């Protein structure tokens, strides 16, 4: 059961942004410093990736831990029944839909020869350099394949 009134819930949810979040901005600034040029929130690509590097056919998503089910994984010490009972039916359905959508988007890009990189906000906050390094390594692999 929700502890907030519908008006309070609306106000709370209206402050959640789907683009230009702090982790996204930090990630983009780091890419830019490395000389990697990109487009942000490209609406003509499926799933509206947070970052698209069309030259190398790479899309990057920076996913919120809660919204994409990472909190479920973090709470691995709970049984599946206990874990699901901690979320209301609404949130369970929403998170499951997000997870399914993420799988479909990944499959779509794989089928058309693009690379999908997904980073959780917790990853970018704790180890931004690792995420940037993974992105640069991916770009370099694609560059090498393009030369062949």
Bin the helical content.
40-55%
Oligomer: single chain
CATH class: Alpha Beta
Strand content range = 5-15%
Q: What is the third-level CATH name, the topology?
A: Endonuclease, Chain A
Distance between the amino and carboxyl termini: 58 Å
- Helix and strand composition category: alpha+beta
CATH architectural label:
3-Layer(aba) Sandwich
Radius of gyration: 17 Å
> Mean pLDDT, rounded to whole units?
85
Instruction: Enumerate the strands of the largest sheet in spatial order, edge to edge or round the barrel.
Output: 1-2-3-4
Tally of helical segments? 7
What coarse outline follows from CA principal-axis ratios?
A: globular
Query: Which sequence of SSEs, written as H and E, runs from N to C?
Result: HHEEEHHHEHH
Supply the number of structural domains: 1
Please tell me about this protein's structure.
The mean pLDDT is 85. The protein has a four-stranded mixed beta sheet, sandwiched between helices. Helix content is 55%, strand content 11%. The protein is an alpha+beta fold and 148 residues long. The longest helix is centred in the C-terminal third of the chain and has 23 residues. It has a single domain, classed as Endonuclease, Chain A, CATH 3.40.960.10. The chain is globular, with a radius of gyration of 17 Å. The protein has seven helices and four strands.
Summarize the structure.
The protein has 148 residues and is an alpha+beta fold. It has helices at residues 6-14, 22-33, 70-74, 80-85, 89-111, 121-126, 128-147; strands spanning 39-40, 51-53, 58-63, 115-120.
């Amino acid at each position: 059961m929700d502890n907030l009134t519908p008006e309070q819930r609306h106000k709370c949810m209206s402050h959640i942004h789907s683009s230009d979040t702090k982790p996204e901005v930090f990630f983009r600034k780091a890419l830019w410093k490395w000389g990697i040029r990109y487009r942000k929130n490209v609406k003509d690509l499926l799933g509206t990736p947070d970052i698209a590097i069309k030259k190398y056919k790479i899309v990057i998503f920076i996913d919120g831990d809660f919204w994409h089910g990472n909190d479920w994984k973090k709470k691995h010490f709970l049984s599946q029944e206990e874990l699901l009972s901690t979320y209301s039916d609404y949130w369970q359905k929403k998170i499951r839909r997000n997870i399914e959508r993420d799988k479909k988007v990944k499959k779509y890009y794989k089928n058309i020869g693009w690379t999908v990189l997904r980073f959780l906000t917790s990853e970018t906050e704790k180890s931004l350099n690792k995420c940037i390094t993974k992105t640069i390594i991916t770009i370099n692999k694609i560059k090498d394949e393009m030369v062949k």
